[in-house]
Write the structure tokens for this entry.
Amino acid sequence: MKHNFGAGPCILPQEVFKQASQGVLNFNDTGLSILEISHRAPEFVAVMDEAISLVKELLNVPEGYSVIFLQGGASLQFTMVAMNLLAEGKKASYLDTGVWSKKAVAEAKLFGEVEVVASSKDKNYSYIPKEYQVAADSEYFHFTSNNTIFGTEFHSFPKVNAPLVCDMSSDIFSKEINVADFDLIYAGAQKNIGPAGATLVIVKDSILGKTGRAIPSMLDYQKQIEAESMYNTPPVFSVFVSMLNLRWLKSKGGVAEIGKENIAKAKALYTEIDRNPLFKGSTAVEDRSNMSVCFVMENPELEKPFLKYAEEKGCIGIKGHRSSGGFRASLYNALPITSVHVLVEAMQEFAEKNA
Amino acid sequence: MKHNFGAGPCILPQEVFKQASQGVLNFNDTGLSILEISHRAPEFVAVMDEAISLVKELLNVPEGYSVIFLQGGASLQFTMVAMNLLAEGKKASYLDTGVWSKKAVAEAKLFGEVEVVASSKDKNYSYIPKEYQVAADSEYFHFTSNNTIFGTEFHSFPKVNAPLVCDMSSDIFSKEINVADFDLIYAGAQKNIGPAGATLVIVKDSILGKTGRAIPSMLDYQKQIEAESMYNTPPVFSVFVSMLNLRWLKSKGGVAEIGKENIAKAKALYTEIDRNPLFKGSTAVEDRSNMSVCFVMENPELEKPFLKYAEEKGCIGIKGHRSSGGFRASLYNALPITSVHVLVEAMQEFAEKNA
């Protein structure tokens, strides 16, 4: 049995894989594959509608917000956010907490002035900056809620005097959030939403249409909202599996319940990291991510042997990103706590063997 | 049994559905779903490499061209083509043969001057204009090789004094083409390539990097080429199934062989349309599409009853687009000729009953 700690595309529930696999053969007893039905067929329109309804229900999205499924991942959102919200000659503020925020900054610069209000680059992004000022004339403030590569996560959200825009790719649906605190949330699907190929955007309608810029139709949030995520052929299968996965999340009790499990999983692993003399966490304790647990070994020479040992126990995908080294165990929603226990046991056994 | 004449997302081979379904449960005997493996895993890199190699092999792509898989469908290519090839203050030429070319024109206008050299709008796009001049200073000439909504197709490609850019979404891989005649070919996957969610681009490297425009990374062909279609997480499943489908095409003898079958399928249906007194073709005979067969009834009041009759025989997806009315039978690669025979029989039987 494999325990998939991969950073994404990541583990989804086994029952979702089964339903998805069945849908490829015979979708909803239509006698057709989900891959060969028209996106305008009532059967698929119902899938898209249900996916959007589930997002609204699970996150308690208030009135005045639109939910759309797009393509291109968070990386295309780096462009779309600035293109749709940052008028030429105006300013946007960004917080630099790692690779993904840096990329978001670089893309935004093509559209207006970008102010980086703070950065944790000085300590290899091992913490979340907390003291900074956002310019009063800033169009919006952008941050990355969870930093997969460095293992930090916001446990409370910034309070700033600017509309809040958040790349929530790697911790959306992992806990309760108050959508009303945000003006725009985006997320690549391939962590807690569904398979790669879809991108979720939740946007406050009233912030759109203000830049005066001519925006290409496919990159225009307003056009995508008007077209109900079907301006052109959507990523049918990715939306279908996202819908299945959000159904699963609802059946588990929603984000409040999964949030408790996620805390329990992270706690089990961090407890062992802190207890075990061979290992140590690589991020500021107060900013430790519950989704992306990054850690290293006191003796770096033991990292390769431990990686091998863990893999023999079925724990895969725990090698750290090349920017941070060491290990990264991603504990997304679908990863059972039993998998965390297997990893913890492997750490304990390895420590005994190498005492 | 259903005979899927849908316009797209469309029928793919049954064996591809089976392999895709299996890959969702257990990809390549990894014990993992194709949906949960990292796009950087060697197993998926091999899928992407094979998909690209198969495109090159099947279309005999010459040296000096790059093949990439992107997201966003042909509609995002309407923007990317102009963004990457049309410098501000320069001109591009477009041929207007229907809804898709019109949309391509509209998006290109955001980036430079657009000259529409000819249009068949005067006769509801029922033919392909053949007499036109392309301005000598045009950066490129854009056309749509097959018009799904109106049922026309280029049977020989334009000879103009400008780089040729083609939206080949609905007839790529349906017949032999000479890629060297083109500077850029793009196609949404969801006809003869694979499922929705992936977009294929074949581009001559030497035409890129000339506009002087700052292009967002995700929309920059050069960056996507350098990143080998993995600038960010690609649409893993759509690329996987595209690879399976291109393997199938290769096993069938490639585009030369499928091209013969496609001609036979189209001929069988057009022969009946021309023979049967109840039906008539709705496009100029010399421009009739082999992929998208559009036809109407002499007596429009019989269209609803025939649609019902055909559906009872298992023929689905033949209702024409609202812009053109009547019927549209899409005969993509994976549609067996036996399905065409069933439709032809239904037309014959219906004619007898309504003689």
Notes: Chain B touches chain A through 59 residues (CB under 8 Å).
